């Protein structure tokens, strides 16, 4: 009996240590699961699809049949083998993958548009590096057959104009089925995809081909919107499209002097807002911008490239929304746009992703608490209860 009691007393500290260790493992696991998985559900769950005019008077069946639910994001910049550090890749690509997959699961969009700069080093990538980057992209942005994914070319995908080659353009088009001047019509809504890198206006081979396709598409759209009693002989043999004003999707924004007039918490930082934009580098040239507006008379323009949010009115009536970057690598508060779109109307709502700084703060707070618990357990740090008890006992003794 005495031997058994002695063994129990000896095993008690070991059991306590194992129990404490188990508690620590549970605590650390809980923090990791929340910061790397659950936080995306908590944040994106708060986002709701915006209502379009007339949507409140339509039944649920009519709404789902006539309203296209679209998610628009930009500038994912998947790192490549040249500049990409493995830890940076791991951290930021996990953030984008969890954000995208959570948004698909919670919001169930009909279509997703990515407005260019999918890759960071597409302009330099060797064939093998390109294949590796594409494979990672397809894993991160995998989607069901019920959601369509449309990707636009950006300058980091095919190079700035002076780096752009037919080989790079064809390589991108082969993977993403993208061509400049391509029309996508869904639920009677016309989307025009523009390779804005090819809008240089210098007559290069890619530029000539791209502009020719855009002009032909403009003619089709204009003919489709004409009234029957104002028919034009030039439109007699033209394929008719839905008579809906198009939405332009491109990487470069149309020309604007700077981001000085942009507002909102995800607009450019104050020190960058007044820096003048360089035509054909930061924004399209004035000439190319006027061409697109004249050719298509769009009801909405969606662009990326600047990594910051901005809303501009062109010709006093045509709104352009610059979509911020989707990656923590480019901003602390990434986001995407949710659009409820009909052939005649649209409504947009921004959905913010978890802030990187807040996730970092949670980790720091959890780390500090973990250190305090360990020190208290090994009695290197006196718990506040015992410290107060000792003060009271000393006061009574006096």
UniProtKB/TrEMBL annotation:
<keyword id="KW-0472">Membrane</keyword>
<dbReference type="GO" id="GO:0012505">
    <property type="term" value="C:endomembrane system"/>
</dbReference>
<protein>
    <recommendedName>
        <fullName>Metallophosphoesterase 1</fullName>
    </recommendedName>
</protein>
<dbReference type="InterPro" id="IPR029052">
    <property type="entry name" value="Metallo-depent_PP-like"/>
</dbReference>
<dbReference type="GO" id="GO:0006888">
    <property type="term" value="P:endoplasmic reticulum to Golgi vesicle-mediated transport"/>
</dbReference>
<dbReference type="InterPro" id="IPR039541">
    <property type="entry name" value="MPP_MPPE1"/>
</dbReference>
<keyword id="KW-0931">ER-Golgi transport</keyword>
<dbReference type="GO" id="GO:0046872">
    <property type="term" value="F:metal ion binding"/>
</dbReference>
<dbReference type="GO" id="GO:0008081">
    <property type="term" value="F:phosphoric diester hydrolase activity"/>
</dbReference>
<dbReference type="GO" id="GO:0033116">
    <property type="term" value="C:endoplasmic reticulum-Golgi intermediate compartment membrane"/>
</dbReference>
<feature type="transmembrane region" description="Helical">
    <location>
        <begin position="360"/>
        <end position="387"/>
    </location>
</feature>
<dbReference type="Pfam" id="PF00149">
    <property type="entry name" value="Metallophos"/>
</dbReference>
<keyword id="KW-0378">Hydrolase</keyword>
<feature type="domain" description="Calcineurin-like phosphoesterase">
    <location>
        <begin position="69"/>
        <end position="308"/>
    </location>
</feature>
<feature type="transmembrane region" description="Helical">
    <location>
        <begin position="20"/>
        <end position="43"/>
    </location>
</feature>
<comment type="function">
    <text>Metallophosphoesterase that catalyzes the removal of a side-chain ethanolamine-phosphate (EtNP) from the second mannose of the GPI-anchor protein intermediate. Participates in the glycan remodeling steps of GPI-anchor maturation to allow an efficient transport of GPI-anchor proteins from the endoplasmic reticulum to the Golgi.</text>
</comment>
<keyword id="KW-0813">Transport</keyword>
<keyword id="KW-0812">Transmembrane</keyword>
<keyword id="KW-0464">Manganese</keyword>
<keyword id="KW-0479">Metal-binding</keyword>
<keyword id="KW-0337">GPI-anchor biosynthesis</keyword>
<dbReference type="InterPro" id="IPR004843">
    <property type="entry name" value="Calcineurin-like_PHP"/>
</dbReference>
<dbReference type="InterPro" id="IPR033308">
    <property type="entry name" value="PGAP5/Cdc1/Ted1"/>
</dbReference>
<dbReference type="GO" id="GO:0006506">
    <property type="term" value="P:GPI anchor biosynthetic process"/>
</dbReference>
<comment type="similarity">
    <text>Belongs to the metallophosphoesterase superfamily. MPPE1 family.</text>
</comment>
<keyword id="KW-1133">Transmembrane helix</keyword>
